[in-house]
């Protein structure tokens, strides 16, 4: 099956995106929730929902892989927005759904305070020694500063790894981390990972929009023989470095 690509500038996609915004507005209103104060999270999820509606005729949650079973497409864990796990477990327990778009008012207040604090205290990552590079690149989870430091160190030939984007082609076109080496869309994962021709013994760092798809892929790759997998925990929305658009 060919890797599916959707033109985000097409009339069809723009129309579907408008319908999706109305859909998420209705979910917010009906469940008494609020949107995530990080606007890029909401936009990314809405785009993913619109994309899945066009590709599969279902608003599958964009943070979960879609599989084909007996000729029909199904979302892993039956994640169709607004999904039952979000309504019955995630939102009541954590304050937001897994994809991050639907939040309780209490979560939104706390998130805004955290965003303000991060803006005040954020400082650029410091340079790393070669030993620190080796320790860092072998971590399972990385934050924005750590990845940025590794990208800087890689430019100085102090460390080697591949940075792999597991979002969709449309998201890649909108913007991807400068220095990303490969695009392996989760909607065509098994074909795309084969075409990427990555060395199974090299360090690979994954990222997606908010970290959920890449975390899922990080769990799959070791079973396929890939030995050194890291994940940008909170995805590209958390990344403070340069984005190619």
Search tags:
single chain; 245 residues; alpha/beta; Ferredoxin Thioredoxin Reductase; Oxidized Rhodanese, domain 1; 2 domains; five-stranded parallel β-sheet; two-stranded antiparallel sheet; 9 helices; 11 strands
Concise structural overview:
By secondary structure, this protein is of the alpha/beta class. The protein is 45% helix and 14% strand. Helix 1 crosses helix 2.
Task: Report what the structure shows.
The two termini are 28 Å apart. The protein has helices at residues 11-31, 39-56, 84-94, 105-121, 130-137, 144-155, 169-174, 189-196, 212-220, and strands at 34-35, 66-69, 72-75, 102-103, 141-142, 162-165, 176-177, 182-183, 203-207, 228-232, 243-244. α1 (11-31) crosses α2. The strands form 4 sheets. It has a 5-stranded parallel β-sheet. A two-stranded antiparallel ribbon has the order 1-4. The protein is of the alpha/beta class. The protein folds into 2 domains: 11-119, Ferredoxin Thioredoxin Reductase; 130-244, 3-Layer(aba) Sandwich (Oxidized Rhodanese, domain 1), CATH 3.40.250.10.
């Amino acid at each position: 099956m060919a890797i599916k690509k959707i033109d985000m500038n097409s009339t069809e996609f723009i129309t579907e995106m408008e319908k999706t915004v109305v859909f998420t507005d209705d979910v917010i209103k009906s469940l008494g929730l609020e949107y995530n104060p990080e606007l890029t999270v909401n936009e990314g999820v809405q785009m993913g929902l619109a994309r899945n509606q066009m590709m599969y005729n279902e608003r599958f949650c964009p943070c979960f892989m879609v599989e084909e079973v007996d000729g029909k497409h199904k979302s892993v864990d039956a994640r169709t927005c607004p999904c039952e796990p979000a309504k019955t477990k995630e939102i009541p327990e954590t304050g937001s759904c897994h994809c991050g778009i639907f939040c309780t008012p209490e979560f939104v207040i706390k998130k805004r305070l955290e965003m303000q604090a991060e803006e005040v205290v954020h400082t650029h990552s410091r340079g790393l020694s070669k030993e620190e590079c080796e320790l860092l690149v072998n971590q399972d989870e990385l934050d924005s500063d750590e990845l940025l430091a590794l990208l800087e160190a890689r430019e100085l030939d102090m460390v080697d790894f591949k940075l792999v984007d597991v979002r969709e082609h449309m998201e890649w076109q909108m913007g991807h981390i400068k220095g990303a080496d490969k695009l392996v869309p989760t909607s065509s994962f098994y074909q795309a990972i084969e075409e990427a021709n990555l060395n199974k013994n090299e360090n690979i760092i994954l990222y997606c929009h908010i970290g959920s798809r890449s975390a899922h892929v990080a769990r799959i790759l070791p079973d396929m023989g890939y030995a050194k997998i890291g994940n940008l925990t909170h995805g590209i929305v958390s990344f403070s470095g340069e984005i190619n658009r």
